Amino acid sequence: MPPAQAPPAPVDADELYRAGRQLFDQLAPPEIKAQFDFPTPQQWDDFAARLQRALDGDSLAELAGCLPEAKAALTALRALPGYEDYADWLEERIDEIEAAQQIAAPPPTPGTNPPASATTEPVPHYRLWLARVHDRPLPSRAAALMPRLRAAFAAEGIPPELAWVAEAESALNPASRSPAGAKGLFQLMPDTAHALGLATWLPDERTDPEKSARAAARYLRTLHTRFQNWALALAAYNAGEGRVGRTLAARHATTFTAIADALPAETRMYVPKVCALIATRTGVTPNQLAVPRK
Fold first, then answer.
1. How far apart are CA 234 and CA 240, in angstroms?
2. What angle do CA 181, 61, 185 make, to 5 degrees?
3. pTM, full prediction
């Protein structure tokens, strides 16, 4: 048995920032530097806070307004070695921001046909997301990971098609992480991971494909048991079951469509995105997803 190792010293935030700035100055191509000035710590903190407020807020227009800064930040993250895990998280959020921009755009001019009413869709904005993801190539890790993730979901009695939640959460990067502390294929926060039986330190089991998939499947099973509906379960996975439960109660409602406009802007984009990805990748539409197996 190898000797126990002391935990690594905590990373100094200022030192990490200086290292990132040095890497940018040394390695970023000239065309990247021409488009983007490496932010000061305060600028980055301000942007991260604005983005999180917009994701948590109820305004799609406010979320759409984050697009220029988010794209600039993604360009910088992609140019820096070692920042890929944050970049994959941000790229999935940009996908949602772009969709919010489509929805928040001015209405069509007279004489054009407006889009079909969201109330006629399985979930609001489902058709918009189908159009967005229809021709999207598979993530590079899909061939290696998806059979394992689908098997893990099936082992927990959950429709294996729901394993494609991982594409929306992390672009299928097991090490993807958010500034808020979520990590892994299924972007589990530390407290949620602990409640689901996962370790988050030496090792961080959120980065283990099978263990994190089984944990996410168990969580989705619990949410479906409470809400009896996959769209609501997905909304609760993203926004929190307390938020979804309170909103349903306040509106005396039983469906995602009935409460979508009162949920966070990110959740309003996340649920139809996941449903559209599942339909595109597997051919299973939202109404065809099976209930959990007993």
1. 9
2. 30
3. 0.85
Concerning whether 84 is annotated as a catalytic residue, the answer is: no
Active-site entry in 91, 169, 205, 266: 169
Dihedral pair phi/psi, residue 2, rounded to 5°: -65, 150
Contact at 8 Å (CB) between 198 and 206?
yes
Cβ-contact 176, 169 below 8 angstroms: yes
Q: Give the residue among 55, 93, 57, 60 at the shortest CA–CA distance from 74.
A: 93
**Contacts made by residues 13-20, CB under 8 angstroms, sequence distance 24+:** 13/41, 14/41, 17/41, 20/80, 20/83
d(CA 279, CA 133): 10
Q: Which two tokens stand for residue 16?
A: 């990490």
Helix (H/G/I), strand (E/B), else coil: 204 = strand
Q: How many CA atoms lie within 13 A of 109 on its CB side?
A: 0
Beta strands in 53-183 (DSSP E): none
Q: How does pLDDT run across 56-81, given as a tens digit for each residue?
A: 999 999 999 999 889 888 887 787 77
Contact 84, 23 (CB under 8 A): no
Q: In the numeric block, which tokens belong to residue 78?
A: 């992609």
